[in-house]
From TrEMBL:
It holds the Pfam family MS_channel_2nd. PANTHER family: MINICONDUCTANCE MECHANOSENSITIVE CHANNEL YBDG. It comes from Limnobaculum zhutongyuii. Belongs to the MscS (TC 1.A.23) family. SUPFAM superfamilies: Sm-like ribonucleoproteins. The lineage of its organism: Bacteria, Pseudomonadati, Pseudomonadota, Gammaproteobacteria, Enterobacterales. InterPro entries: LSM_dom_sf (IPR010920), MS_channel_C (IPR049278), MscS_beta-dom_sf (IPR023408), MscS_channel_2nd (IPR006685), YbdG (IPR030192). This is Mechanosensing system component YbdG. Keywords: Cell inner membrane, Cell membrane, Membrane, Stress response, Transmembrane, Transmembrane helix. It is a multi-pass membrane protein. GO terms for molecular function: mechanosensitive monoatomic ion channel activity. GO terms for cellular component: plasma membrane. Residues 336-396 form the Mechanosensitive ion channel MscS C-terminal domain. It is found in: Cell inner membrane.
Length: 415
């Protein structure tokens, strides 16, 4: 190049001083860079965008969307400038060193950005697959980005100070404690992400409940340092990733996969309303198609027992008898067995819990055949609406703490 410039200057009658040669060489390098930039960005990349807009191939669109080709073109420009400068500026070592340093820094920075674009593209592609979308890949990719950024930063510093990267790496040993403190959250998050993935503890879309952080909703994102949860009130809670390993949380995924959601609620019966069934009550309740089999079989069993043991039934405390509470329990069980919204292959029982000053708890323990929240609440409400309405048919009363109107009625009666 130098001989070519000398030949041109001699033909033009211009004295070829070293400064003029240097200026012309630098001008040629700049012009070459501009031409390459215009060719790559306004010809090659522009035509690629037009062709991909017609092809509609998802993975190619992602490459363009994440600017991978743009950043690779900048890397190529830096490489060309580096090579051309090494060939054309051999007699100007100081200028050559400056340009080569700038070109190397340019290549490293845009090389790092190209790696980021490639990782973002892979992450977007993985989210299109069913299996990979459930893995905490975002945290892993963020870890790779962090490691790559640290490595490039070390190379940049070594270039600027003119020392070997190995010297800087050896000096990092004394900075381990400081680095551990600075990058504590990313390191803990990386380890937590690996444990969450390896043990299948949490996936995107799972229903997570963590009262300590006020989280109760669906997992939106599992990152390197944070996990985002969209609560049912549409607020978003951010939880440190490592907190999912150090603290306990509830994952409702198994419930969703099982196909049944649990109902576990009690009704409290006034203990003073519990009694034996009279013959009239027994005959009346026997007209219920749900209770008829139970009353017939139970009445025969009790009659046979009392007859075999020659029990005197003139006293209520003698022998066995049907009770209104036991009959209500049998009715609710039969009602749940016949209910179309109850999962019949899961645990189903109606049990009596320990009585207290709040009455006798009668607990319904069953599972709906749907896990959808709205449908589940609808089934549960329908069941208890029915139970509350039929309790008086058994001669029972619900326990309820006296209200202001009860107290006023009591005062009026005394007056």
């Amino acid at each position: 190049m130098r001989e070519y410039l000398l030949l041109i200057l001699s033909k033009l009658g211009i004295e070829a001083t070293p400064m003029i040669i240097l200026v012309l060489t630098l001008t040629m390098i700049i012009l070459l860079s501009v031409v390459i930039h215009l060719f790559l960005h306004h010809v090659i990349l522009k035509s690629m965008r037009k062709s991909e807009a017609k092809n509609h191939k998802f993975w190619r669109q992602l490459l363009i969307e994440h600017n991978l080709f743009d950043r690779l073109s900048f890397v190529l420009q830096g490489i060309i400038v580096h090579v051309v400068s090494s060939l054309w500026l051999t007699r100007d070592p100081e200028v050559l060193e400056f340009i080569l340093t700038c070109a190397q820094l340019w290549i490293l920075i845009y090389g790092l950005l190209s790696l980021f674009s490639m990782l973002d593209t892979l992450l977007s592609l993985s989210q299109r697959t069913k299996i990979a979308s459930q893995l905490p890949l975002r945290g892993i990719f963020q870890s790779v980005k962090l490691i790559a950024a640290i490595f490039i930063a070390i190379l940049i510093i070594s270039i600027l100070i003119g020392k070997s990267p190995a010297l800087l790496l050896s000096g990092l040993g004394a900075m381990t404690a400081v680095l551990m403190l600075v990058f504590k959250d990313p390191i803990l998050g990386l380890v937590a992400g690996i444990q969450l993935s390896a043990n299948n503890m949490l996936k995107i879309g799972d229903w997570l409940e963590m009262p300590k952080y006020g989280a109760d909703g669906a997992v939106l994102d599992i990152g390197l340092t944070t996990v985002k949860v969209r609560n049912w009130d549409n607020t978003v809670t951010t939880i440190p990733t490592y907190a999912l390993i150090s603290d306990s949380f509830k994952n409702w995924r198994s419930m969703s996969e099982s196909g049944g959601r649990r109902i576990k609620r009690s009704i409290r019966i006034d203990a003073t309303s519990v009694s034996f069934l009279s013959p009239e009550q027994q005959q009346s309740l026997q007209h219920s198609y749900l209770l008829e089999p139970y009353i017939e079989s139970k009445a025969k069993e009790i009659e046979q027992y009392n007859h075999q043991h020659h029990i005197d039934l003139s006293l209520p405390i003698n022998g066995r008898r049907l009770t209104n509470l036991g009959t209500l329990r049998a009715y609710i069980h039969a009602y749940l067995k016949a209910h179309p919204g109850i999962h019949q292959n899961m645990t189903l029982m109606v049990r009596q819990l320990e009585a207290s000053s709040e009455g006798i708890p009668l607990e319904i323990y069953a599972f709906t055949n749907t896990v959808a929240w709205v449908e589940y609440e609808g089934i549960q409400s329908d069941i208890f609406d029915h139970i509350f309405s039929i309790i008086p048919q058994f001669g029972l009363r619900l326990h309820q703490t006296p209200t202001g109107s009860d107290m006023r009625a009591m005062v009026n009666n005394l007056a």
